[in-house]
Every structure is written in C-alpha cells, then in structure tokens.
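Input record (Table S2, row 253):
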Amino acid sequence: MPGSSTTLVIPDNTDVPRHLAIIMDGNGRWATSRFLPRTAGHVRGVQAVRRVVEACGRHGIKYLTLFAFSSENWRRPAEEVSLLMRLFIQTLEKEVNKLDKRGARLRIVGDLSAFEPGLQKLIREAEARTAHNSALVLTIAANYGGRWDILQAMRRLLEDRPDLAQNPADLNEAALAPYLSMSYAPEPDLFIRTGGEQRISNFLIWQLAYTELYFSPDYWPDFGTAQIDAAIDWYKARERRFGRTSAQLAAKN
Ligand code: IPE
Ligand code: IPE
Ligand code: MG
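Output record (IPE complex):
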C-alpha cells in the first residue's frame, strides 16, 4: 500500500523489509582515518551504494531510499559541496544504464530547485529513462530535509484545498500524505544509519514514525554484504507491534 500511514493502517508483517531507508554516514571519517582527503571517502562510498542495491535484489526489497545530501549539508566547505555535486552527476551518468538493466526505477526527492540546471536536467532524464521499471524503486534524497518535506506538502495541500484554512479540523493525515515527497512508497520498515551516530539528522522524520531503527558503527564505505545481511537478520527478529501488545500479536498468528 504505497503511501499508507503506519499510524492509520497496520501494515502486513513481512519477513523482509519492503522499504529500506539508509543514512550513508561516515565517509569523511573513513577517509580521515586513512590520512586521505574526506572527498576520497565520498568517492569510495559509491561502491557501497552498488553493494546495497545488489543486496536489495537478492533479498527482494522493493524500495531503497538513500540519503545522499541533506538540506543542512550546504553548510560544509564549498570544495566538499562541489565535489559531492560532481560525484552525484558522474554517478548518475555512469550508473543509470546499469540500474535500468536491473529493472530499477530511479527517483530523486528533495528541493531540486537549488541544483544547477544541468544537474536538474540529468535528474529528470534519469527518472524518465527508468520510469517503466518496477523491480526496485531506488530513491535518492538530495537537498532533502524532513521538515522541508512536511512544509512543502502542507503548502501544496493548502493550494489545492484552500477550504482547509477555514476549517482546520478537517485537516488530517490522510489528506496530507499524498503531498509528501515519497507518497509513492510505503513508509520505511527498516532504517539503517552507518558511521556510529544515533540520530535522524532531519531525514524522513514523518515517514519514520514506526520504522525499526538500526545503527551500525561501520563507516559507509566499509558497509558490505555481510553488514547488510546482519541488519536484515536483526530486522527479522523485531516484533513490530504498532501499538498493540505481544499477546494480541500471538493470538493473531
Ligand atoms: C556522509 O558521510 C556523506 C554525506 C553527508 C554526503 P560524511 O561526510 O558525513 O562522513 P563523516 O560523518 O564526516 O565521517
Ligand atoms: C546526514 O549525515 C546526511 C547524509 C548522510 C546525506 P551528516 O553527517 O550530514 O549528519 P550530521 O550533521 O552529522 O547529523
Ligand atoms: Mg556525517
């Protein structure tokens, strides 16, 4: 049920996450610990992206969302921001063919208006090129912020439904949900953050309401097949109660 809310409808429990969302963190520290420039960590991180895409295919995960650049990452040194933009462009140019062959649909979410026109065009082309695919929906969050998402959704909802400003009691989750930038996907079942920090950093704050949160100490470039499999095994052992009790779940099964 794409877009449906875990606080309104209890999703079916599946062994494998339908939607995996990842904060790919630790590139800079990976590089620094090797006396390399931080940017070398970002370059190396692309390989980990390939590994996780491959793992999704193997596990039958249908939606993969990767946080590539946050709305706060503009605060970084200009050289690092520009390397990240170049890497984004190069990776799009290089990987779109392969993703297409895998049957992956690429979607980019975030405030894309901040990107240079050439990159915006590349993004639109990559999305159009893979729009017919459905084996995996790969979403890249770029210049994304969870608060931005909620605000843009609210603005667009009020444009379509000006009556709501007069009758705020009519405003509900179901009305807002279609305007959130990932309304095409179910909410994430499993969230992974690499790099040891245990925070959300303004990622999908609305959509993570009932997501299982997994934190790995490994830096993103070191996150390989074994680590991905361990996270999925951990997920399979969770009891997702969605507000109910364990006894209720046992009675249902
Ligand atoms: C994540 O790695 C990549 C981006 C934010 C683009 P970092 O660059 O945040 O790496 P650390 O956290 O400084 O090690
Ligand atoms: C979050 O990582 C953003 C991405 C991975 C793209 P950061 O490294 O920017 O997060 P904070 O600022 O340390 O929380
Ligand atoms: Mg970081």
